[in-house]
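Quick board copy: two proteins, each given as sequence then tokens.
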Amino acid sequence: MSKRKIISSLFLSATVLGGLLFIQTPTVKAIELEDAQTMSTSSAQAPIFSPGELIQETNHTAQFRNSVSIAATNGTSEKEVIWKVDSTYWNFNYDKGGYYFVVPAGMKLKRITLVNGQTREELLDRFPKNVNDNNGSNSSYRLFKRGENTYDDRDFDSQWGWSAGRASNDKVNQWKDENVFSDIYYIDSPRHAGPVTYELEAEVTDQNKTSFPLVAVMKNFYARTSYLSEPTSLAGLDVKVEWPQNNNLNS
């Protein structure tokens, strides 16, 4: 069996919160989970992916709490995780902000694709391979790795504090304390005239793990909350994996 892959995407919507995008979410989610069960039972050798309860957090208003979401979907031969974001309240056409994608240990990110209409643009090669190589604060694409010796603002824990730490959540903090995360991929100052999609494809590399928490963070650097903090929203989803007996990822 080939290595299992998890695909995720970030959808930037210009619709208002409470509109069609979010009204449809519960229905779509139910269909997706049903499809996932169908795929899992169709192949006795396929691992079973089960998404946990969605976590949404913010340091701002309820509108921002719901502006980042992660929902599990099912593909033909892989598991998909959809990250849906409403950008209306963020106004990144004028303000500066950024997206943080936190990858768990035991997974390797294989692809980040920007989908804009009919065009697809691969972005992963724009990120540095080393946290101390071409990874300064002026870079548009940055990488932070847990446990690596770094300098300046390249430290994983510092970046976590400036992103997920600003929208603190007990469960997500527990994941961090348990060292379940390995990498943070950061896109600085996104500018989009209309809806776009970011697709992230990750490959499971450690079959000894049965839990893969995914975290996405959206942050505005110019605006301020009532506590004079930078508005930040977070979504987290723990994807559980049940491996078949005698499963071998390397075969």
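And the next:
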Amino acid sequence: MTHIETKIQTDLPLKYLSQSSPNSAGKPMIIFLHGLGSDEADLFELKNEFPQDYTFISVRAPLDFFNGYQWYQKSDMASEAIQANDVRSSTKLILEFIPAAIKKYQTDSSKVILIGFSQGGIMNYEIGLNHPEAVRGIASLSGKILPSTKVKINVQLDLKKINIFIGHGTHDDVVPFAESVTASELLGKISTTMEFHSYDRLGHSINMTELADLKNWVSRILK
């Protein structure tokens, strides 16, 4: 029987919602990171697109943002130094959260995938490109690579082991489509496992075609 935690959980470094089943032990874990101003409930329903014997966790960002939450303060509301510090702090919490969640749910530590939208996708770049050992793969949906992330990329790290999915709508008016084009060009030089999907006329959102591509990507990298 599937067990869904409908109340926010507070026993790990970040607050979260979760779904697991008696068959989830030793299976993959998918962690969702929401976008600016949203919360842990936003992406949680994406779990229905994947095998139900996985463990699914949707995490709440640590910083308040009006009626929602954020992983870091936007550049038009804070200095670059403050933003970079927020990114470091949130990254630290995520890196603490992942092994704690693996231990709690007894999942396969080699099969952890991060899926993030917008600011959550931006954080996934920070995790995957600078701490590739932490996860099997990252998906950045409507995201971008921050300058503070780019300058820290260590080309000595074995980035070939980190699977990367980039998805972006061509009509995104929040995070420009060009950001993912730039990211794909950069990552194409240092990773052989990156794939870039563009979605014609899609705005700052996720459509069924992108979900299908994402589902297929997850299936492939977990084989």
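Board note added afterward: The first strand starts at residue 3 and ends at 9.
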